[in-house]
Amino acid sequence: xxxxxxxxxxxxxxxxxxxxxxxxxxxxATDITFRNHSCVPTGFSNVCFLDRISYNPHDQRVIxxxxxxxxxxxxxxxxxxxxxxxxxxxxxxxxGMMGKPRTLEVINLWVRTIQLPRTVQHANxxxxxxxxxxxxPGEDAPLVTYLHLGKNWLxxxxxxxxxxxxxxxxxxxxxxxxxxxxxxxxxTKLRHLDLTHNFLTQFSTQxxxxxxxxxxxxxxxxxxxxxxxLYFPPLLTLNLERNDLPSIDASALILAMPKLKMVRFAxxxxxxxxxxxxxxxxxxxxxxxxxxxxEVACLYKEEVVEGVCVKLAPQRKVIREILLSxxxxxxxxxxxxxxxxxxxxxxxxC
Length: 350
Hints:
Shape: extended
Distance between the termini: 118 Å
Order of helices and strands: HHEEEEEHEEEEEEEEEHEHEEH
Number of helices: 6
Radius of gyration: 31 Å
Low-confidence stretches: 1-9, 24-34
Helix content: 25-40%
């Protein structure tokens, strides 16, 4: 069509027509480029918080072009209109379209798979439905130092082993039952590790790196501590609340963690007398054992000992259940006797 118009009009007019058509094509291309995402105004030119985006890694037609020099990009948030976000898979292709920001957040969007870029430094993928996590292929060490994978569906975390620069790792509320000791063997810079609300049964130096200063294993399924395998020189805070520990050796823990300042072990089925001795030993070494909310946070079948919630030990629960059963039997006998006495009394009057 452009060729036909060029034959009918002078050279200057032809040039004008070509410019118009070029402008139209550019406008169409721009519309295709920008139509599937938009940034919320933040007042910072290097920050982009998205209120909508559509991305399919297998769709070759759509190319997102974000503002240049972005250092922080966030997809989603605490309150999300899911119709505005169509993204189930986050990969390095989309990350490249964003300009490879140092800080990346993908929050509460029902994303199922993540390919962690090697150049991102701060990554937050909490509150999704991640069941698959992998790292971008390459030879350079990944730069990420902070990684939040909490509240997902992860059970396999073996791919974390290459994140040698990691300092903070949050994995609470997942489906992790166990992992090989090699998973964290090379994470020598890791300081903060949160594994609250998982299904772990192990706690030893062979599993977790010695560099930790904070470790939370709250609400797991740990039944035994192998004190011979514990040695965490810089550890300051240890949370073992609400596991299945029947006892705790305070002296051994203090020896294994000489810098320990705070320990939490409420909600375990420890005998109260043994629990008191452990608390006294910790306090003697200036180790905090309870917080302000402990006494009001006791769950069902827990009691307060030294200001800390202690789960009733199994043997004590059996005794209590036997006593309750005896009470029920006695009440039943009393009711039968009462009914019999009333029946006999009525018959005598007749």
